[in-house]
Design goal:
The chain is of the alpha/beta class and 328 residues long. It has a single domain, classed as Rossmann fold (3-Layer(aba) Sandwich), CATH 3.40.50. The chain contains ten helices and eight strands. It has an eight-stranded mixed β-sheet with strand order 3-2-1-4-5-7-6-8. Helix 1 packs antiparallel against helix 2, helix 1 crosses helix 3 and helix 3 packs across helix 6. The longest helix has 30 residues. It starts with 6 loop residues before the first helix and ends in a 21-residue tail after the last strand. It holds the Pfam family NAS.
Protein backbone atom coordinates (compact mmCIF):
# COMPACT_ATOMS: atom_id res chain seq x y z
CA UNK A 1 0.00 0.00 0.00
CA UNK A 2 1.14 3.53 -0.79
CA UNK A 3 1.13 5.69 2.31
CA UNK A 4 0.48 8.88 0.34
CA UNK A 5 -2.74 10.20 -1.13
CA UNK A 6 -0.69 12.19 -3.64
CA UNK A 7 -1.82 10.97 -7.11
CA UNK A 8 1.66 11.45 -8.53
CA UNK A 9 3.19 9.15 -5.92
CA UNK A 10 0.54 6.53 -6.67
CA UNK A 11 1.35 6.72 -10.37
CA UNK A 12 5.07 6.38 -9.78
CA UNK A 13 4.54 3.50 -7.38
CA UNK A 14 2.43 1.65 -9.96
CA UNK A 15 5.18 2.06 -12.55
CA UNK A 16 7.78 0.94 -10.01
CA UNK A 17 5.84 -2.28 -9.39
CA UNK A 18 5.76 -2.99 -13.13
CA UNK A 19 9.44 -2.15 -13.64
CA UNK A 20 10.58 -4.21 -10.66
CA UNK A 21 8.68 -7.24 -11.98
CA UNK A 22 10.50 -7.23 -15.34
CA UNK A 23 12.68 -10.26 -15.97
CA UNK A 24 15.38 -8.08 -17.52
CA UNK A 25 16.14 -4.37 -17.83
CA UNK A 26 17.95 -4.78 -21.14
CA UNK A 27 16.52 -2.63 -23.94
CA UNK A 28 13.22 -4.05 -25.18
CA UNK A 29 9.78 -2.78 -26.12
CA UNK A 30 8.42 -3.28 -22.59
CA UNK A 31 11.45 -1.79 -20.86
CA UNK A 32 11.50 1.26 -23.14
CA UNK A 33 7.76 1.82 -22.73
CA UNK A 34 7.79 1.66 -18.93
CA UNK A 35 10.79 3.93 -18.48
CA UNK A 36 9.38 6.40 -20.98
CA UNK A 37 6.15 6.49 -18.99
CA UNK A 38 8.13 6.97 -15.80
CA UNK A 39 10.13 9.89 -17.19
CA UNK A 40 7.04 11.58 -18.62
CA UNK A 41 5.30 11.18 -15.26
CA UNK A 42 8.19 12.75 -13.35
CA UNK A 43 9.07 15.46 -15.88
CA UNK A 44 6.43 18.20 -15.25
CA UNK A 45 7.42 20.71 -12.55
CA UNK A 46 6.03 19.61 -9.20
CA UNK A 47 6.58 21.09 -5.72
CA UNK A 48 6.78 17.66 -4.08
CA UNK A 49 9.55 17.33 -1.47
CA UNK A 50 10.75 13.73 -1.50
CA UNK A 51 12.46 14.14 1.88
CA UNK A 52 9.05 14.49 3.52
CA UNK A 53 7.62 11.26 2.14
CA UNK A 54 7.06 8.31 4.44
CA UNK A 55 9.62 5.56 4.93
CA UNK A 56 7.84 3.15 2.58
CA UNK A 57 7.91 5.63 -0.30
CA UNK A 58 11.50 6.59 0.48
CA UNK A 59 12.47 2.94 0.16
CA UNK A 60 10.56 2.63 -3.12
CA UNK A 61 12.30 5.75 -4.45
CA UNK A 62 15.74 4.39 -3.52
CA UNK A 63 15.01 1.10 -5.28
CA UNK A 64 13.62 2.91 -8.31
CA UNK A 65 16.74 5.05 -8.69
CA UNK A 66 18.87 1.90 -8.68
CA UNK A 67 16.64 0.27 -11.31
CA UNK A 68 16.91 3.40 -13.45
CA UNK A 69 20.68 3.32 -13.12
CA UNK A 70 20.85 -0.33 -14.12
CA UNK A 71 18.59 0.20 -17.13
CA UNK A 72 20.60 3.24 -18.15
CA UNK A 73 23.86 1.31 -18.06
CA UNK A 74 22.42 -1.53 -20.14
CA UNK A 75 21.03 0.86 -22.73
CA UNK A 76 24.33 2.70 -23.03
CA UNK A 77 26.28 -0.55 -23.44
CA UNK A 78 23.83 -1.67 -26.12
CA UNK A 79 24.30 1.48 -28.19
CA UNK A 80 28.02 1.74 -27.51
CA UNK A 81 28.43 -1.68 -29.12
CA UNK A 82 26.36 -0.62 -32.12
CA UNK A 83 28.35 2.59 -32.55
CA UNK A 84 31.65 0.70 -32.31
CA UNK A 85 30.66 -1.27 -35.42
CA UNK A 86 31.03 1.88 -37.54
CA UNK A 87 34.37 2.94 -38.98
CA UNK A 88 33.89 6.42 -37.53
CA UNK A 89 31.55 6.04 -34.53
CA UNK A 90 31.43 9.78 -33.72
CA UNK A 91 29.69 10.45 -37.04
CA UNK A 92 26.74 8.32 -35.95
CA UNK A 93 26.07 9.44 -32.38
CA UNK A 94 22.57 10.51 -33.31
CA UNK A 95 21.44 6.90 -33.59
CA UNK A 96 21.29 6.94 -29.80
CA UNK A 97 17.63 7.80 -29.16
CA UNK A 98 18.39 10.42 -26.49
CA UNK A 99 21.42 12.02 -28.10
CA UNK A 100 19.64 15.37 -28.49
CA UNK A 101 19.09 15.48 -24.74
CA UNK A 102 22.82 15.14 -24.16
CA UNK A 103 23.41 17.96 -26.61
CA UNK A 104 21.02 20.13 -24.59
CA UNK A 105 22.46 19.16 -21.21
CA UNK A 106 26.01 19.77 -22.43
CA UNK A 107 25.02 23.19 -23.75
CA UNK A 108 23.37 23.98 -20.43
CA UNK A 109 26.43 22.92 -18.45
CA UNK A 110 28.80 24.75 -20.77
CA UNK A 111 26.74 27.96 -20.41
CA UNK A 112 26.68 27.59 -16.63
CA UNK A 113 30.41 26.98 -16.58
CA UNK A 114 31.28 29.98 -18.75
CA UNK A 115 28.98 32.27 -16.78
CA UNK A 116 30.79 31.34 -13.57
CA UNK A 117 34.39 30.95 -14.74
CA UNK A 118 37.07 33.41 -15.79
CA UNK A 119 38.96 31.04 -18.08
CA UNK A 120 38.50 28.05 -20.35
CA UNK A 121 39.45 24.85 -18.48
CA UNK A 122 42.61 23.15 -19.65
CA UNK A 123 41.84 19.83 -17.96
CA UNK A 124 38.47 18.36 -17.06
CA UNK A 125 37.62 15.18 -15.14
CA UNK A 126 34.32 13.41 -15.62
CA UNK A 127 33.57 10.97 -12.79
CA UNK A 128 31.15 8.21 -13.76
CA UNK A 129 31.55 8.41 -17.54
CA UNK A 130 30.19 4.96 -18.45
CA UNK A 131 30.32 3.06 -21.76
CA UNK A 132 28.78 5.93 -23.77
CA UNK A 133 30.44 9.14 -22.50
CA UNK A 134 28.28 11.50 -24.51
CA UNK A 135 28.66 14.51 -22.22
CA UNK A 136 32.46 14.45 -22.47
CA UNK A 137 32.32 13.85 -26.21
CA UNK A 138 29.82 16.64 -26.91
CA UNK A 139 31.67 19.10 -24.69
CA UNK A 140 35.00 18.22 -26.32
CA UNK A 141 33.68 18.44 -29.88
CA UNK A 142 31.28 21.39 -29.62
CA UNK A 143 32.38 23.60 -26.75
CA UNK A 144 35.90 22.87 -25.44
CA UNK A 145 38.03 22.00 -28.49
CA UNK A 146 41.36 22.52 -26.73
CA UNK A 147 40.55 20.90 -23.38
CA UNK A 148 41.86 17.55 -22.16
CA UNK A 149 39.29 15.15 -20.68
CA UNK A 150 39.97 12.37 -18.18
CA UNK A 151 37.01 10.03 -17.76
CA UNK A 152 36.75 7.87 -14.66
CA UNK A 153 34.59 4.80 -14.17
CA UNK A 154 34.89 1.78 -11.90
CA UNK A 155 33.78 -0.57 -14.71
CA UNK A 156 36.76 -1.59 -16.85
CA UNK A 157 34.54 -2.98 -19.62
CA UNK A 158 32.65 0.34 -19.79
CA UNK A 159 35.93 2.20 -20.23
CA UNK A 160 37.04 -0.21 -22.96
CA UNK A 161 33.77 0.33 -24.81
CA UNK A 162 34.01 4.10 -24.46
CA UNK A 163 37.62 4.18 -25.67
CA UNK A 164 36.64 2.32 -28.84
CA UNK A 165 34.29 5.15 -29.78
CA UNK A 166 36.95 7.90 -29.74
CA UNK A 167 39.93 5.85 -30.93
CA UNK A 168 39.34 6.47 -34.68
CA UNK A 169 39.29 10.25 -34.13
CA UNK A 170 42.92 11.49 -33.94
CA UNK A 171 42.05 14.75 -32.20
CA UNK A 172 39.66 13.37 -29.59
CA UNK A 173 41.66 10.24 -28.86
CA UNK A 174 44.61 12.51 -28.11
CA UNK A 175 42.62 14.68 -25.70
CA UNK A 176 40.41 12.08 -24.04
CA UNK A 177 41.55 9.28 -21.72
CA UNK A 178 39.67 6.63 -19.73
CA UNK A 179 40.68 5.41 -16.29
CA UNK A 180 39.30 2.47 -14.33
CA UNK A 181 39.30 3.86 -10.82
CA UNK A 182 36.93 4.46 -7.92
CA UNK A 183 36.64 8.19 -7.26
CA UNK A 184 37.35 7.51 -3.59
CA UNK A 185 40.80 6.22 -4.55
CA UNK A 186 41.76 9.45 -6.34
CA UNK A 187 44.17 11.53 -4.28
CA UNK A 188 45.29 15.14 -4.28
CA UNK A 189 48.07 14.44 -6.80
CA UNK A 190 45.41 13.50 -9.36
CA UNK A 191 42.43 15.67 -8.53
CA UNK A 192 44.34 18.90 -8.06
CA UNK A 193 45.33 18.75 -11.74
CA UNK A 194 41.78 19.52 -12.89
CA UNK A 195 40.20 22.92 -13.44
CA UNK A 196 36.74 21.34 -13.50
CA UNK A 197 35.38 18.07 -12.13
CA UNK A 198 32.00 16.77 -13.32
CA UNK A 199 30.19 14.38 -10.97
CA UNK A 200 27.68 12.19 -12.80
CA UNK A 201 24.18 11.87 -11.38
CA UNK A 202 24.52 8.19 -10.52
CA UNK A 203 27.88 8.33 -8.75
CA UNK A 204 26.60 7.84 -5.23
CA UNK A 205 23.15 6.28 -5.48
CA UNK A 206 21.88 7.68 -2.19
CA UNK A 207 22.50 10.66 0.06
CA UNK A 208 25.15 8.96 2.20
CA UNK A 209 27.21 7.77 -0.77
CA UNK A 210 26.88 11.08 -2.60
CA UNK A 211 28.03 13.15 0.38
CA UNK A 212 31.02 10.87 0.93
CA UNK A 213 32.13 11.47 -2.65
CA UNK A 214 31.61 15.23 -2.43
CA UNK A 215 33.61 15.45 0.78
CA UNK A 216 36.41 13.40 -0.77
CA UNK A 217 36.52 15.83 -3.68
CA UNK A 218 36.52 18.78 -1.27
CA UNK A 219 39.54 17.32 0.46
CA UNK A 220 41.60 16.74 -2.68
CA UNK A 221 40.54 19.17 -5.44
CA UNK A 222 42.67 22.25 -6.04
CA UNK A 223 41.59 25.47 -4.30
CA UNK A 224 39.60 27.61 -6.73
CA UNK A 225 38.72 24.71 -9.04
CA UNK A 226 35.12 24.05 -10.11
CA UNK A 227 32.78 21.18 -9.27
CA UNK A 228 29.76 20.49 -11.48
CA UNK A 229 27.25 18.21 -9.77
CA UNK A 230 24.12 16.76 -11.32
CA UNK A 231 21.08 16.59 -9.12
CA UNK A 232 17.29 16.40 -9.39
CA UNK A 233 14.35 18.53 -8.29
CA UNK A 234 10.69 17.90 -7.53
CA UNK A 235 9.28 14.67 -8.95
CA UNK A 236 12.47 14.16 -10.94
CA UNK A 237 14.02 13.11 -7.63
CA UNK A 238 12.37 9.74 -8.19
CA UNK A 239 14.81 9.25 -11.08
CA UNK A 240 18.07 10.59 -9.61
CA UNK A 241 19.60 11.37 -6.20
CA UNK A 242 19.24 14.92 -4.89
CA UNK A 243 22.19 17.11 -3.94
CA UNK A 244 21.39 20.12 -1.77
CA UNK A 245 23.69 23.16 -1.51
CA UNK A 246 24.35 22.38 2.16
CA UNK A 247 25.79 18.99 1.11
CA UNK A 248 28.76 20.72 -0.52
CA UNK A 249 30.92 21.44 2.49
CA UNK A 250 34.26 22.90 1.44
CA UNK A 251 32.74 24.48 -1.68
CA UNK A 252 31.17 27.84 -2.39
CA UNK A 253 27.92 27.13 -4.21
CA UNK A 254 27.66 29.55 -7.12
CA UNK A 255 24.37 28.60 -8.76
CA UNK A 256 21.69 25.92 -8.82
CA UNK A 257 19.79 25.39 -12.07
CA UNK A 258 16.48 23.51 -12.20
CA UNK A 259 15.48 22.99 -15.84
CA UNK A 260 11.79 22.51 -16.58
CA UNK A 261 12.11 21.10 -20.09
CA UNK A 262 13.18 17.62 -21.18
CA UNK A 263 16.62 18.03 -19.62
CA UNK A 264 15.97 15.97 -16.50
CA UNK A 265 18.91 16.84 -14.29
CA UNK A 266 19.39 19.90 -12.18
CA UNK A 267 22.94 21.26 -12.20
CA UNK A 268 24.85 22.63 -9.21
CA UNK A 269 28.06 24.55 -9.82
CA UNK A 270 30.43 25.16 -6.91
CA UNK A 271 33.95 26.45 -6.38
CA UNK A 272 36.47 24.75 -4.11
CA UNK A 273 37.23 26.97 -1.14
CA UNK A 274 40.55 28.78 -1.41
CA UNK A 275 41.37 28.18 2.26
CA UNK A 276 41.51 24.48 3.19
CA UNK A 277 41.04 25.42 6.83
CA UNK A 278 37.49 26.50 5.99
CA UNK A 279 36.73 23.20 4.26
CA UNK A 280 35.23 20.62 6.64
CA UNK A 281 36.00 17.20 5.28
CA UNK A 282 34.14 13.91 5.52
CA UNK A 283 35.05 11.73 8.50
CA UNK A 284 33.62 8.84 10.47
CA UNK A 285 32.54 11.29 13.14
CA UNK A 286 30.77 13.40 10.51
CA UNK A 287 29.00 10.30 9.17
CA UNK A 288 27.81 9.28 12.64
CA UNK A 289 26.47 12.77 13.27
CA UNK A 290 24.74 13.14 9.92
CA UNK A 291 23.57 9.69 8.79
CA UNK A 292 19.97 10.59 9.57
CA UNK A 293 20.18 14.36 9.49
CA UNK A 294 22.10 15.70 6.54
CA UNK A 295 22.74 19.29 7.58
CA UNK A 296 26.49 19.86 7.41
CA UNK A 297 27.94 23.20 8.43
CA UNK A 298 26.29 25.74 6.19
CA UNK A 299 28.40 27.79 3.85
CA UNK A 300 29.04 31.32 5.01
CA UNK A 301 28.84 32.55 1.45
CA UNK A 302 26.23 30.77 -0.65
CA UNK A 303 24.87 32.49 -3.72
CA UNK A 304 22.19 30.02 -4.77
CA UNK A 305 20.40 31.13 -7.89
CA UNK A 306 17.49 28.86 -8.78
CA UNK A 307 16.52 29.32 -12.40
CA UNK A 308 13.36 27.37 -13.14
CA UNK A 309 12.66 27.87 -16.86
CA UNK A 310 15.95 27.09 -18.59
CA UNK A 311 15.29 25.90 -22.15
CA UNK A 312 18.47 26.16 -24.26
CA UNK A 313 16.81 24.32 -27.13
CA UNK A 314 13.11 23.91 -26.62
CA UNK A 315 12.45 21.27 -29.23
CA UNK A 316 13.29 17.69 -30.07
CA UNK A 317 12.60 14.44 -28.29
CA UNK A 318 10.41 15.16 -25.29
CA UNK A 319 11.58 12.08 -23.39
CA UNK A 320 14.31 12.93 -20.84
CA UNK A 321 17.81 11.63 -20.90
CA UNK A 322 17.11 8.90 -18.47
CA UNK A 323 17.55 6.33 -21.12
CA UNK A 324 14.03 5.91 -20.92
CA UNK A 325 16.60 6.10 -19.01
CA UNK A 326 19.74 7.38 -20.61
CA UNK A 327 22.11 9.70 -18.80
CA UNK A 328 25.51 9.62 -17.38
Amino acid sequence: MVCQEEPLVNQINELYEKISSLESLKPSEDVNMLFTQLVLTCMPPNPIDVTKLCHQIQEMRSNLIRLCGEAEGLLEKHFSNILASYDVPLQHLDIFPYFNNYVKLSLLEYNILTQNSIHVPKRVAFVGSGPLPLTSIVLALNHLPDTRFDNYDIDASANEMAARLVEPDPDLSGRMKFHTKDVMSLGKEELEEYDVVFLAALVGMNKEEKVKVIHHLAKHMAPGSTLMVRSAHGARAFLYPVVEPEDLCGFEVLSVFHPTDEVINSVVIARKADDDRSSPVYSLEWEQNHTHNFSPIRLQSCKCLEIQPFNPLNHGNIVGELASSAHQ
